[in-house]
Amino acid sequence: MEETRIGVFVCKCGTNIAGFLDVSDIAEYSSTLPDVVFTKVNLFTCSEAGISEIKNAIVQHNLNRVVVSACTPRTHEPTFRAACQEAGLNPFLFEFVNIREHVSWVHKNDREKGTKKARDLIRMGVARAALLEPKEFIEVPVLNEAIIIGGGVAGLSSAVSLAKRGFKVHLVERSNKLGGRLLDLNIIQPEMTSAKGIIEDILHEAENLPLINIYKGYKPVDLKGCIGAYKMIVENSKKETKEIDSGVIILASGTRMLDPSPYYGYNGRNIITQYELEKLLSNEDLEINNNVVMIQCVGSRNSENVFCGKICCMEAIKNSILLKERDDRIDVYIIYRDIQALGHENERLLRKAKNLGVRFIHYSAEKPPEVTKDAVKIYSDILNREFNIPYSLAVLATPQIPHSDAQELSRILKVPTDENNFFLEAHMKLRPIDFATDGIFICGSARWPCTVNEAIYQAEACAARASIPLGNGKVKVEPINSLLDEDICRGCGLCVSLCPYKAIELVNTDKGKKAKIIIAACKGCGVCGSTCYRHAITMSHYKDEQLLAQIEACFKE
Amino acid sequence: MQYATNVRIIRVMCGGRVDLEMIFSAFLNGADGVFIGTCLKGECHYTSGNLQAEARIIFAKHILKYTGLTEKRVKLSMMSSAESGKFVSSVSDFIETIIAEGKLPDDANTQRKLHAAYRAVMGEKIRWLAGKKTEFETDGNLYGEKFTPHEINRLFREVAQDEVLTQEIILLLENSPLTIKELAEITNIPPRRAVRQIANMLRLGIVRQDGSKDNAPAFTAGNNKRLIEVIR
To answer: Which domain-ending residue is among B174, B195, B215?
Structure first.
């Protein structure tokens, strides 16, 4: 038998791992483990340099197993498997040990015990690696149709983009009207184009593309399947359900506006939100005869909603410009905590507002403004004095917040949300519009409040990403499936009744009744193997002996 | 998001992959507790693996209780992959429980009982019943009789006790012939229970009489090929 030669690569992940664990100790320890013939510390194993070190080591040291102890397999397993393959090593002879999410990030205050845990996990990974066997990926077909959740600007843009590529799209919108928030907006900065113009163009396109199926008034209630063959149940308010099949899913469910009523005496008449001001400004006959005072960060960046509303600064600046251009006699005040005007177009608009005479007054979170019946009282911590500004209109910048049923949707799709209930992508930089679950993508404000152009380019990116499996018509999946030892099987049929995928059948052989695994249907859950009282079934790549070796190694310091 | 460093994580594709063998192998190797995280009910990524895991955990708990260890040493927690906060609080609670229970005793008695437990979960009866739980609850047994959770629990408890005791007696008798009185003393069961157990085991041929001590018959392990052949 070939000698087992394991290479262990320990990643510092910049300071993400090295900042909290003793990486050189971990590497030194790894080199003492059975079958380990090569150990290397990398600053970033996933970098070009790290990858070529793996490839070189495989060739130079004749490695036949590779263990990388770094981050989560969810982001970099494909990267490292590819590196192995390029150096001539079967990608399933690679084992990933997670010492970032499982160790350094969650044990930031205990360097010693964290380092010990990392050593243990690597020892377990090395024990498993030694028993790994070469495998080949399995190809499964992908139904070339997409489900898009949300009929706002993001969802519609994705739908149009996919339909133009020739893919059938099922667009599910919870309300009875397509178009989303853009229907209520006035002018979109920085180009100062009409919001209605933008959305009407996209709607017109969407409604004239026969490949787009629209489900108005429906929302998802259940999802089964995986990439290539999703099956979603949608339901309307009358509890009528429909079943939709698709290969991929794009989530563009957007947000709702925060209820402004607890803030600054909001009354909807002369104390309104920026969102309501949009509607007023689209009215030609709007008459304002005194000051307009805009208050920023209302109900955001506090203990309840810790996040920044992101679009409210530019919305206020844009609306202040529109007000000044409409009637120069109106005095506009923007009372702010920090102004977010990123990018040269926004910077230009900020300058323009200042040149037009819009006044910016800074306040601190500790001393928020007070809105009385006819004036806004504000203490400027820069000028160290208080202002009393009479107003005819006070405008509150309330943020967009996640839908109240975001958690429910998160559970149905099995995709995560962050601590604010916004949906969370697989990786901020490397996979910004993918979810960690294959075949589900995210765009628009459901991820984080975003501008219209951001929503559109995210939507286009989603359509492009989704087109890869849709266009290929197939996708590679892990070759994790049941393996049967026919000699041990007694043909009792317990596994047949337990298999959720009907992937096992009983067949008559010359040795009597025996189970037979239908590999194409097997999804690899392992229920049959872990139940079989004859121990006749195990799982490829998660074999009993591989997992038991890990358990045993856990306690063998 | 921070938690204590006491856990060592093993990746499996589904809770349904966690074999009772793995749980008791962990205890035999020195684990003080075993935590299994699965998908929420009705939301299993693999449709029903979490329910199978749950069935096995009922057995694991009864077995632990019978071996004199607390059932708290094994915990199944259902959560969505999106609920990292729930994972942290669930694992942290478990670590606290285990620290309060203390390290797993490593005396010969506990080790023998754990060894018996390991053999029991490798055997036919427990594995078969664990696999049949969902069917018993929804479709009923061969006669269409559906089991309530209470009935399942009672059945699993009785079978767990019986199977572990059987294996423990075999383990003891593999070493040296013993009388019923000695067996009852070592295994800490009432002599009447020991008589019944040995009678059953004699009937099945897995123990046989081998001489006598102090005028009492002594027993030794019989031909256990069928019982042991599946045990690696």
So the answer is: B174
